[in-house]
């Protein structure tokens, strides 16, 4: 197997195991068995389990899949927020395995491993705050607090639909987010 294929096999195996069991409960031996490689190969490719974990995030990270920011800036506030909400929701759904890893890591206190999620959240927060400050159609006195509330609502809807599922029947994301944005902008 080529070096590239070996690395990809290790990363894929690690992603599956970390998302299922959490960082602390996975051994490099388990990862090597699932990837079909020798355990030493993991250390040759990634140096340590921690570096492997970081690389899983680098390879499969929540790359902000937001439409062109310049195009977004031309939208009215409701369209902008709807577009951001839908994009975020799709990113969260696509990265469900990584979110599960992150949630398990919180339980096992791997604080420095939170950086990939924190970086993503701050990038998105900055895009929204910048839009709110520049847009003349909207007057929000504290764009940072508004943005945190908005992002928390999107995250909460995602968590309710895909992780904890407390509501029966399941809530409809589109209906909820549209109502929220309408209420926020009034």
UniProtKB/TrEMBL annotation:
<feature type="DNA-binding region" description="H-T-H motif">
    <location>
        <begin position="27"/>
        <end position="46"/>
    </location>
</feature>
<dbReference type="GO" id="GO:0003677">
    <property type="term" value="F:DNA binding"/>
</dbReference>
<dbReference type="InterPro" id="IPR001647">
    <property type="entry name" value="HTH_TetR"/>
</dbReference>
<protein>
    <submittedName>
        <fullName>Transcriptional regulator, TetR family</fullName>
    </submittedName>
</protein>
<dbReference type="Pfam" id="PF00440">
    <property type="entry name" value="TetR_N"/>
</dbReference>
<dbReference type="InterPro" id="IPR050624">
    <property type="entry name" value="HTH-type_Tx_Regulator"/>
</dbReference>
<dbReference type="InterPro" id="IPR009057">
    <property type="entry name" value="Homeodomain-like_sf"/>
</dbReference>
<feature type="domain" description="HTH tetR-type">
    <location>
        <begin position="4"/>
        <end position="64"/>
    </location>
</feature>
<keyword id="KW-0238">DNA-binding</keyword>
């Amino acid at each position: 197997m080529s070096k590239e294929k070996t690395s990809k096999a290790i990363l894929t195996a690690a992603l599956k195991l970390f998302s299922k069991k959490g960082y602390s409960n996975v051994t490099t031996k388990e990862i090597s068995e699932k990837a079909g490689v020798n355990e030493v190969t993991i250390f040759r490719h990634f140096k340590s389990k921690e570096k492997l974990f970081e690389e899983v995030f680098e390879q499969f990270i929540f790359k902000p899949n937001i439409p062109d920011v310049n195009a977004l800036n031309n939208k009215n506030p409701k369209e902008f927020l709807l577009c951001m909400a839908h994009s975020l929701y799709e990113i969260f759904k696509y990265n469900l395995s990584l979110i599960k890893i992150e949630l398990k890591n919180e339980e096992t206190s791997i604080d420095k491993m939170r950086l990939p999620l924190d970086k993503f959240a701050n990038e998105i927060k900055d895009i929204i705050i910048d839009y709110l400050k520049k847009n003349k159609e909207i007057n929000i006195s504290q764009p940072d607090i508004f943005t945190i509330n908005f992002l928390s609502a999107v995250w909460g809807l995602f968590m309710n639909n895909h992780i904890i599922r407390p509501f029966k029947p399941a809530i409809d994301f589109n209906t909820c987010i549209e109502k929220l944005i309408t209420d926020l902008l009034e």
